[in-house]
Specification:
Layout: H1 3-21, E1 30-31, H2 33-40, H3 44-56, E2 60-63, E3 67-70, H4 75-95, H5 98-120, H6 124-140, H7 145-153, H8 155-164, H9 166-171, H10 173-189, H11 192-205
Antiparallel strand pairs: 1-3, 2-3
Helix pairs in contact: 1-3, 2-3, 4-6, 4-7, 4-11, 5-6, 5-10, 6-8, 10-11
Length: 223
């Protein structure tokens, strides 16, 4: 495969993945190599490579000579994602040194104005990107690179869930901003228990019900 093929494959992967995450290609939809290639102005070879990569990531299932079926996230997978987020964000905040907590809280407070602007414009895509960066800040607060790497691996699943909840997010815009403000205040104060309780409720309000409460004294429950 040439360098141009690799570049084309990467472009195809990004376009198809983004359309799966934002719901343009809905769960259960059949994707065909030929139609995808035509819509992107590419040959079928890079599209085939992109689809193979997406199957490896669990976003599609390829059926030879038929196409690829888009996979969503099961209710259990969404709940498990909520558990993982709760654990990673809360653990990081609980361990964060005061200076870093305050610095990140300042940054998060400035993000709230951008979130309000995105909601005012009805720009759900922009809000989702802002809220992903906002919540990532809680993991940054812990200063643990491994936890941050694990959190980043969940980003596309979080993005998918937020797009699925798009209409609900717009209806709850004022409440979401208020919850983000409260979480920022709890980060600044170093109230780990209060932060965990508020975050659990905040995650649940997006339609994600964690499978169970996480015991933050038992770090061995995470892989």
């Amino acid at each position: 495969m040439t360098e141009n093929d690799l570049s084309a494959s990467s472009r195809a992967y990004i376009v198809i993945r983004d359309h799966i995450l934002d719901g343009t290609h809905a769960p259960g939809e059949m994707l065909g190599e030929a139609s995808l290639a035509s819509s992107m102005g590419l040959s079928r070879t890079p599209v085939r490579a992109a689809l193979a990569r997406l199957q490896d990531e669990g976003w599609i299932v390829i059926y030879p000579k038929r196409g690829a079926v888009v996979q969503g996230l099961s209710e259990r997978a969404v709940a498990e994602l909520g558990d993982a987020r709760l654990a990673l964000e809360s653990t990081s905040v609980a361990r964060a040194p005061e200076a870093l907590r305050c610095r990140l809280a300042d940054r998060m407070e400035s993000s709230l104005a951008d979130q309000r602007a995105a909601f005012a414009d009805g720009d759900i895509r922009e809000f989702i990107e802002l809220t992903l960066r906002f919540h990532r800040g809680f993991v940054e607060a812990g200063g643990n690179g491994v936890l941050l790497e694990l959190y980043d691996r969940l980003a596309d699943r979080q993005r998918f869930v937020l797009f699925q909840a798009g209409d609900r997010l717009l209806r709850r815009c004022e409440e979401i901003i208020s919850e983000h403000e409260a979480l920022t205040g709890l980060l600044r104060s170093g109230d780990g228990e209060g932060f965990t309780a508020a975050l659990r409720d905040h995650i649940a309000e997006t339609g994600v019900r964690p499978l169970s409460s996480f015991d933050f004294d038992d770090a061995t429950t995470f892989h």
